[in-house]
Every structure is written in structure tokens, then in C-alpha cells.
Amino acid sequence: MKIHHLNCGSLNPKFPPMQGIVYCLLLETEDGLVLVDTGFGRQDYSKPSLMMSGFLRLMGVPRDEDETAYHQVVASGYEPRDVKHIILTHLHLDHAGGLRDFPGAKVHVFKGEFDSAMSPRGLVERGRDAAHWAHDPDWVLHDQVDEEWFGFPGMRVLEGGSPGIFLIPLPGHTRGHCGVAIKCDNRWLFNCGDAASPFHRDVDPHDHPADLQPLNVIPGWLSRRLIGTHVPKLRKLIAEHGDEINLISSHDIYSFEKNNAIGIGRVQVNG
């Protein structure tokens, strides 16, 4: 298996001033290409909904179509139809925006997340853009936790020729939020989605220096409310299995750079 690290949407909000990304993965597997999250899609930039337009302005997204997963797949020599599977950590605007760009892909998601998007409870769960799945994707819903992965409950995603891809339920950021664990050679890459963030001391499993954490200006209780309560367990995972697991999160520009994610993945910053 070959893993490409993609930035599918540069984030440059003015307050607090910071630089982030939408960290997605493109896997070359025996089952075809697999995307882990999609970032923003082409129509999010060309014909955004009112909700999406406001989100793009708030987060300082440059609306560069070259950053979309669609264009990065094409730039790497493939066709969009070569993407056979999309695995989603959750269905927020910045994670599922590119679904429409790959209409032939099977879309894997935890059933609890699917339910929260289709039958939202309250205002927070309504903060998704149903236009992202208006094309009626080929959903594959996972709800049978039948594996254990380093002490976390897990679900195997692909049963064919791609062993070692698991959904790991990490609810909190959303009702059905999951991480995605991928076995490549003798190590694991664990995308914990939005269950962690490098930008606030209370939810950063890698414990970056304070000068790299612009969100420290917000209270710790609020960061934990937005992210969830899994960070202590993620820190323990790194401490005990750091030689086996490379842990990343969805907006972690520092891990993106550390993983030498250049080539078809890149970062763009507004001036």
C-alpha cells in the first residue's frame, strides 16, 4: 500500500490568527484508490451553499481548486473513477465536501454518524451541508464493533485485498465521529480526525510548544467540548506504541509537514 498525504483545504482564520489544513489521505490499495476524508469539493468553491460560503469566509479558505481531492487525484495520474472507496471520519463541511466529485465511490461511515446527519438532533447537528450527499452516494454503514485495535474498539472497513484499515469510534466532536487506522508495511498511520488538535494544550496529544498553539486563548473546557475527551487515551497510545503508530489529526499542519507531505499535497497561505 502507498499513502499520499493531501492538504484538501488551507485554513487561515483571522481570529485567532493561525494556519491549518484539511488533512486527507489517498491510499493506493489492491481494492483501488481509497480516500480518507475528502476536504472541500469543487462545487464548494464554484457554487457554495449559504452555509458553506460563510464557513469558507470564516476560516479564510483560499478556494483553490488545485487543493481539492479531485484535482490532486488527477494530478497524480489517476481518473476520479479510480477512487473506489471513501472512508469518512465524520460528515462535517470540511470533511465530506468532495463526495460529489467521486460519485462512483462507495462511502464508508459509522452508522451513528450517518444517523446524526440524516436525522439531526438540535442546532449543532444541523451544521452540515446536505448538498454534499444530494447525489445519493453508495453508502456503506458500519456499526458492528468486532475488532480491538491497541485497546480501542474497531471495525474492519474493507474485507477484500486491503487488510489493516479500521474505523475506530471516537465520539464527542460528533455523535458518530471515528478515527481511521491504516496498516502500511510494519507501522500504523492513525488519523484520529477531529478527536485531537495541535492548536490547544488541552487537546494536543503531541504536546507542542505553547507558541505553536494559538487556540490557547480559549478556555480548556471549551476546547474539550468541541473536540471530545479522548486525548488522554491518545497520549497514552503514543507513549506506549509510538514506535508502531504515527498519529495525525485532521487539521494538523505540523504532522503534515513532518510526514514530508509534499508533491500532490501542499499548503497555501493567504497573505
Q: What low-confidence regions span 5 or more consecutive residues with pLDDT below 50? A: 261-271
User: What would CATH call the architecture?
Assistant: 4-Layer Sandwich
Mean pLDDT: 92
Structural class: alpha/beta
Helical percentage = 10-25%
**For the largest beta sheet, what order do the strands appear in spatially?**
1-2-3-4-5-6
- Count of alpha/pi helices: 9
User: H/E order of the elements?
Assistant: EEEHHHEHEHHEEEEEEHHEH
**Largest sheet composition:** 6 strands, mixed
CATH superfamily: Ribonuclease Z/Hydroxyacylglutathione hydrolase-like
* Number of strand segments: 12
Fold and architecture overview:
By secondary structure, the chain is an alpha/beta fold. It has a single domain (2-258), classed as Metallo-beta-lactamase, Chain A. 23% of the residues lie in helices and 23% in strands. The protein is built from 9 helices and 12 strands. It has helices at 42-46, 50-58, 69-75, 93-96, 111-118, 122-125, 220-227, 231-241, 253-258, and strands at residues 2-7, 23-29, 32-36, 83-87, 106-110, 138-142, 147-149, 152-156, 165-169, 178-184, 187-191, 245-248. The strands form 2 sheets. The chain has a 6-stranded mixed beta sheet. It is globular, with a radius of gyration of 17 Å. The model is unreliable at 261-271 (pLDDT under 50).
Topology:
Layout lengths: L1 E6 L15 E7 L2 E5 L5 H5 L3 H9 L10 H7 L7 E5 L5 H4 L9 E5 H8 L3 H4 L12 E5 L4 E3 L2 E5 L8 E5 L8 E7 L2 E5 L28 H8 L3 H11 L3 E4 L4 H6 L13
Parallel strand pairs: 3-4, 4-5, 5-6, 11-12
Antiparallel strand pairs: 1-2, 2-3, 7-8, 8-9, 9-10, 10-11
